[in-house]
Amino acid sequence: MTRRSRIILTTLAFVAASGIATFAALPGDPKPVAESGGLWTDKDGSPTYNIGKDGTVDWGTFIGYLRYSDSCLRCHGPDGSGSSYAPDLAQALRQISYAEFIADVAGGIKAVNTAQQLVMPSFADDKNVMCFIQEIYSYLRARSTGALGRGRPAKIAPEPKGFDEASYKCLGIPQ
Amino acid sequence: MKRTTTWIGCAALGVLACLLMAGPMAVAQNTTNANEAAKAPAASTAMAMPEVTGPSAAQEAANPDNWAMPSLNDAATRYSSLNQINAGNASHLQVAWTFSTGVLRGHEGQPLVIGNTMYLVTPFPNNVFALDLNHNERILWEYTPTQNPDVIPVMCCDTVNRGVAYGDGKIILHQADNTVVALDAKTGKEVWKTPLASYKEGATGTDAPLVVGDKVLVGVSGGEFGVQGFLAALDIKDGHIIWKAYSEGPDSQILFNSETTSLGKPVGTDSSLKTWKGDEWKIGGGDTWGWYSYDPKLHLVYYGSGNPSTWNPNQRPGDNKWSMTIFARNIDTGVAKWVYQMTPHDQWDYDGVNEMILANLNVDGHEVPALVHFDRNGLAYVLNRDNGELIAAHKYDPAVNWTTGVDMNKSSPDYGRPKVVEKYAPGSKGVNVNYTGICPAALGSKDEQPAAFDPQTQLFYVPTNHVCMDYEPYPVAYTAGQPYVGATLSMFPGPGGYMGRFIAFNPVTGKTVWAIDDQFSDWGGALATGGGVVFYGTLKGYLQAVDAKTGKLLYSFKTPSGIIGNVMTYMHDGKQYVAVLSGVGGWAGIGLAAGLTDPHAGLGAVGGYAALKNYTTLGGQLTVFALPGK
């Protein structure tokens, strides 16, 4: 089992165990305190961004920007800013914790009634999402606090050693 | 002009068919009141499937008062000979009536009008309405399908539907969940239902079927989910599949034989398999979600296939045939007579599904049976629709920069291939490289919004996108029913800072006769008319009427929501009407709802482009226009 998939499973187990109480929690202080493999975490261990004074964006947040576009953009619009049929995630992520974010992505959301037919699928089996769920969260968190503007980050921290290999391994495709 | 078209229709059908038309049509007009049929015991429908028959699609389409096919006729010209509304009086147009569809998602497509009844379909859940034009558009019947809402998120670009089709007394619906349903046009009762591919694997239905004689032609959407594209022909009597022709795979699946040609030469065996690595073709896309047209003399059906999956070109070496291809298939057997791949080894998501307009054009003094296609890749193709010979391929937006044009030298090994500019080709330097400033963007110089051909001016009226992009590919894994994309795209307005152009274009010469720039993409389909007036809709929600010769704006009216539907016209009780669906959404609603930013502008300019949401909001309405008076 790779480090990456272990983290995902641990997170999912945490969400399952923590139950409903987690759902009221807000994201908390985004200040980065630790780094591993290009990905930063806050004091609670939730993924976060680390943007330098010169605007250099950490590698994990940049990867989140890329992978967001793969599976999320077609509904949630460029830069997480919403579309004619899916919410603005820069707004939505201010209201939910990392645990709830994971639960929504893995479990999906349905709001089907007479007024609307909104359905977000479960991405639990989608490696393109779950291999990079922490990075996607870091990116959207940076968007939600306003730390990161729209578009591709102009300055990006260097790619950490072994990142590509780990990505291919997690995705299960030959490099 | 009206008579001329009628007689052209008669010539195509044979005079006998034209004379026979009068009978069944008169009957249909007397039985549009569905009340009595509705009172009939439901059990009879369940116990014994009623035989539903009626005039053919071609017969109804031959009457210029009708709009009996999604693209008006099987040549997909969207030219109506109706001329009551003309360049002199169009400025007096006013709203005659409106209808709310009750659904607030993207409304592509157009209604049908046959006799005294209008038929229209909403986006998911795909409710179908029949409106009685004789009695203030009261609802004759409504059909509300039951579909699993899990189909919603596997629709790539909103839950659009491009319209129902008519034939043999039935209304044909291609539902989002990829089930084709035939309804009794008089009662709305189900006659048959045929599921095609599974939405659980990402295959969905968004296209408007084309009915040709006893066959219903439908394709499939799902290029962003790795769905192997196909065109299916169903029997209009009972819905059974007569043939199914895939875009990629072994010859037995793509229905190619030794006589199938490309650019005049036989393609040989395994022409698709040879251009894919291993089994990639099985999840290779090439979906067929656009428009279909048909030549009754040649017995050929024409359509295009979409992008190869994934969007990361580095993951699928080869030409990826027959994605991005124009197909000409025999209507009875499905066997391909000729094919032409426009964008081999796609690196931009330039789906080839846009409409194939069949028109006889003057080329170097000779009349040629032409097929004209405004592709997403920014080139307007003219081919001989009989043999697939390439006649012309011109850029129809000067911003197009990924290619310098198509190699037209018949003795060149690259004959017919686009000359690709390496720095704008996301496969040229591998993954994890940001390829910047590519024009057009993935949504193409034009997407599905259809153009119209006016035989009077010999010009094509084309709603276009003027949008560019950065493209950053990376590796992705395939999971059935999950997005299979593999690239991050940033789109931004093209040179000049605007995103749309509505143009009058000659595809033989490549000349743009006139152009109207638009702040946003022009995503509503065009209509040309015998009155010399061309109509189209804008994303801000305006229905626009312009002079076909000059492009002069004659009339403009702001409907309640952005227009991504196609303008249509019909004649009822001696009066010409023009109708269009409003309801912003579709792919246009993804990027443009939030506004696009220019990554290459200075810091202060980021976010400077006004968002569409400052002009319009969600809606779902039909607006119908007419001249004042009786």
Unreliable spans of chain A are 13-23
Please name the fourth-level CATH homologous superfamily of chain B: Quinoprotein alcohol dehydrogenase-like superfamily
What percent of residues of chain B adopt helix (DSSP H or I)?
under 10%
Let me know the number of strands of chain B.
Answer: 40
Strand order of the largest sheet of chain B: 16-15-20-19-18-17
What about the largest sheet of chain A? Answer: 3 strands, antiparallel
Helix share bin of chain A: 40-55%
Structural class of chain A: mainly alpha
What amount of the residues of chain A lies in strands? 5-15%
Give the terminus-to-terminus CA distance of chain A.
18 Å
At CATH level 3, the topology of chain B is: Methanol Dehydrogenase, Chain A
Strand content of chain B: 25-35%
**What is the CA-based Rg of chain A, rounded?**
16 Å
The domain tally of chain B reads 1
Compose a concise summary of this entry.
Chain A has 175 residues and is mostly helical.
Tell me what you see in this structure.
The complex is a heterodimer of chains A (175) and B (630). With 175 residues, chain A is mainly alpha-helical. Chain A has one domain. Helices cover 42% and strands 9% of the residues of chain A. Chain A has eight helices and five strands; from the N terminus they run αβββααααββααα. Chain A has a three-stranded antiparallel beta sheet with strand order 1-2-3. A two-stranded antiparallel sheet of chain A has the order 4-5. In chain A, a hairpin with a 4-residue loop joins β4 and β5 (117-120). In chain A, α1 (3-18) packs across α5 and α2 crosses α7. Mean pLDDT of chain A is 87; it is low at 13-23. Chain B has 630 residues and is mainly beta. Chain B has a single domain, classed as 8 Propeller (Methanol Dehydrogenase, Chain A). Helix content of chain B is 9%, strand content 33%. In chain B, the strands form ten sheets. A six-stranded mixed beta sheet of chain B has the order 16-15-20-19-18-17, with no helix packed on it. A five-stranded mixed beta sheet of chain B has the order 1-34-35-36-37, with no helix packed on it. In chain B, strands 2-40-39-38 form a four-stranded antiparallel beta sheet, with no helix packed on it. In chain B, α1 packs across α2 (15-30). The radius of gyration of chain B is 23 Å and the shape is globular. The two termini of chain B are 22 Å apart.
